[in-house]
Design brief:
Elements (H helix, E strand, L loop, with lengths): L1 H17 L2 E6 L7 E6 L5 E8 L6 H12 L12 H7 L4 H13 L8 E2 L5 E7 H8 L4 E5 L4 E4 L2 E5 L6 E5 L33 E6 L15 H8 L13 E6 L6 H10 L13 E5 L11 H18 L5 E6 L8 H8 L39 E4 L3 E2 L5 H16 L3 E5 L12 E2 L5 E2 L8 E2 L7 E7 L11 E2 L9 E7 L5 H10 L15 E4 L2 E4 L3 E5 L2 E6 L1 H21 L9 H4 L8 E2 L28 E2 L1 H10 L2
The protein binds 2-acetamido-2-deoxy-beta-D-glucopyranose (NAG) (4 copies).
One 2-acetamido-2-deoxy-beta-D-glucopyranose binds next to loops.
């Protein structure tokens, strides 16, 4: 007995000596409206959860994994992963689970009280405050909000050094994710930005109403129609694969399409083959997403109508379009809520959704959606989103977590497309950065767009048919109403696929700006990757025709072309094209784009970047030359 006891004691002492206590997280300040009221009672019970770190999630590993299935010269090109393989590859290891559970029991909590989640992502125990404080070398306090709501938290906590690599997050700890009533003034938070027109989004801009649709191909400089786009990009294709293929368009409630407008558009613009009158997208509702008809105006219907009218027309009635309608009418939603629905493991990884930026479901207000949709949807082959943030709206950690998730979609063979923004080198709202990181309209530092700066998505900028020019003339970077979003990331390093073209852009067309204005090292991710027309789109909107502008238009058009390339590949038994960036930047695809060499993307009091021969951070590699792209992609495995 005695011998055993002293042996155990020796082991504990040894572990402590080997593994010093390390601070894992610390809050810099209390969120406004909260104050500390007292030490928490030592015998109170906390639902303590340790979120384990995912292995293989660092940038270089992700890039390597993606290149293996997406690089045209890789022997594994097109061998996309199953969802199970993705889940297993990024699941915490048995070793991590063992290290954390052993450490907890070494500290006196019987192993029987410690639970491991099925995905191995979480280790959970109901701990007394005294136990949690001993494990985490911290103190828990009770805080009270001005509204009377209470919350338990600590200011900082520690973990033994040998546990640190295995743990991403501990809850409850420093965070104040106590959801207050959404309408209360203290939480005019940003988390429903995406679902609210005008903030945090890339909204298309409406200029004037259209009384007569002009004879199409002769007037593409003043009115863009599906026929103009088909002529510009050689995009004539009648699909054959039908429901074996898929194209997803993402909208955030309360954005909603108007069914009558889809029919009006289909009446005036015929597509290839069967009529689209009466055709609707297939609704995939996420977190209570509804096509609301309570509020109708350009702000509520413009984005959805634009995306769906063009996407559906261009892929024709033979190809179903899926509408990912995300978020209920109360809470709204963000990109992470969409990603949760596409990958169940994302719901909780690294602590799960962030209450300041994401919708938190279940939404417990009256009328709110009472579930949290995790892993309910098999992602479409191509997913196009015309919404975006300024990179600086979000933390590097938040964007890295989300960006890794786009890489996982790439492994599954999904092409993820985002519009690049409508403000040139400025961010949404014309905001530019100041040296202290704040964003103001008079800032001088370029303000890149996210998710476009994530190297694992494909970002689409905007071009125009020049005033007075013919549809057969070369396009320029868009400089009517909007400017093509583009530039250099402040958060993400340059991916392999861009290294050569960015080096040559910086060498041959050095931007005339100081290195304080943008990251000029050539070591950061640049965007967009591609471009397509974004000016003068005729859309049916609230019973009329109007003209709209934006990379919002460009993204679903490129998505439609890529969807038709998937159709051709699927029809002959090949795989979808998946993550396209390593392919489109490869030498074989050099001639498959119409290079845009005229125009800039002004912002922040400058002309922005200049287009150039080859790649530029205004229009990327150029606009698609559909027949060339189709031919090249059919040659690939
Ligand atoms: C913690 O206690 C609650 C309430 O008794 C129970 O529902 C839950 O399963 C417990 N969790 C763990 C990890 O033991
Ligand atoms: C749309 O089509 C209808 C029916 O053909 C026609 O009367 C109308 O003028 C067209 N609208 C425009 C704006 O050209
Ligand atoms: C530029 O970007 C690279 C890659 O992200 C980074 O390592 C470097 O620190 C950045 N330079 C500046 C001046 O911000
Ligand atoms: C370049 O673009 C401008 C508009 O941005 C246009 O007026 C001009 O004609 C274009 N020049 C050429 C050579 O395409």
């Amino acid at each position: 007995m005695l011998a055993l006891f002293s042996l155990a004691l020796a082991a504990v002492v040894a572990a402590q000596t080997l593994s010093p206590s390390v601070q894992h997280a610390k809050r810099s300040q209390l969120p406004s409206g909260w104050s500390r009221v007292r030490r928490h009672a030592p015998d109170a019970v906390l639902p303590l959860r340790f979120g384990l770190a995912q292995p293989n999630i660092d940038f270089n590993t992700l890039e390597e994994l993606l290149n293996d299935v997406s690089h045209p010269e890789s022997p594994n090109y097109g061998n996309h992963w199953t969802a199970t393989r993705v889940a297993e590859h990024f699941a915490p290891s048995d070793e991590a689970v063992h290290a954390v559970t052993s450490w907890i029991s070494e500290n006196g909590v019987p192993r029987g009280r410690v639970h491991v989640s099925k995905t191995k992502g979480w280790i959970m125990l109901n701990a007394t405050v005294a136990e949690a404080e001993a494990l985490l070398n911290t103190q828990y306090h009770v805080y009270e909000h001005d509204s009377g709501k209470q919350h338990v938290a600590c200011d900082a906590y520690n973990l033994p050094a040998h546990i640190v690599p295995h743990v991403e997050v501990v809850t409850p700890s420093i965070d104040f994710n106590a959801i207050l009533s959404k309408r209360s003034s203290s939480s005019t938070s940003t988390h429903i930005k995406l679902g609210q027109p005008g903030t945090g989004t890339v909204n298309p801009k409406l200029t004037k109403s259209v009384s007569t649709i002009l004879h199409e191909l002769e007037n593409c400089n003043t009115q863009i129609t599906p026929a103009c786009l088909r002529a510009l990009y050689g995009f004539l294709y009648a699909p054959l694969a039908g429901s074996k293929n898929s194209y997803g368009i993402v909208e955030y409630t309360p954005q909603a399409y108007r069914p009558a407008d889809l029919d009006m558009f289909a009446t005036n613009f015929s597509s290839i083959g069967k009529t689209l009158i009466g055709a609707r997208p297939v609704l995939a509702s996420i977190d209570g997403g509804v096509v609301q008809d309570i509020s109708e105006s350009f702000d509520f219907n413009g984005e959805s109508n634009l995306d769906l009218e063009y996407a559906m027309n261009l892929v024709t009635a033979q190809q179903p379009v899926t509408l990912y309608q995300v978020g209920d009418l109360e809470m709204g939603a963000s990109f992470n809520n969409l990603l949760d629905a596409l990958d169940g493991s994302f719901c909780t990884f690294e602590g799960g959704d962030d209450p300041t930026n994401d919708g938190i479901y279940p939404d417990n207000v009256a009328g709110g959606y009472q579930k949290d949709d995790c892993g309910i949807i098999k992602p479409a082959n191509v997913i196009s989103t015309s919404y975006g943030y300024n990179e600086a709206d979000l933390s590097p950690a938040y964007t890295a977590r989300q960006c890794a998730e786009y890489a996982k979609l790439g492994l599954l063979g999904v092409t993820v497309i985002y519009s690049s923004g409508d403000n040139g080198v400025s961010g949404n709202g014309g905001l530019c950065l100041n040296p202290d990181g704040t964003q103001t309209t008079d800032g001088k530092i370029f303000n890149p767009s996210f998710p476009s700066t994530c190297p694992f998505v494909t970002s689409i900028g905007a071009t125009q048919v020049n005033p007075g020019a013919k549809v057969t003339d070369p396009e320029s970077a868009c400089n009517q109403v909007i400017f093509s979003g583009g530039g250099f990331s402040n958060y993400f390093p340059i991916p392999d696929y861009q290294k050569a073209v960015v080096a040559s852009y910086l060498k041959n067309s050095p931007p005339p700006y100081a290195s304080t204005v943008f990251n000029s090292t050539g070591l950061s991710r640049t965007y967009p990757d591609l471009a397509a027309n974004g000016a003068n789109y005729v859309i049916a909107i609230d019973g009329q025709f109007g003209l709209v502008f934006g990379t919002s238009a460009s993204a679903p058009v490129v998505g439609a072309m890529l969807t038709m390339i998937n159709d051709a590949r699927i029809t002959i038994g090949k795989t979808p094209i998946g993550f396209i960036n390593p392919t489109i930047y490869s030498p074989a695809f050099r001639g498959a784009f119409n290079d845009i060499t005229n125009g800039t993307n002004p912002g922040c009091g400058t002309s922005g970047f200049y287009t150039a021969k080859g790649y530029d951070p205004v229009t990327g590699l150029g606009t698609p030359n559909f027949p060339r792209l189709l031919a090249e992609w059919l040659l690939l495995k």
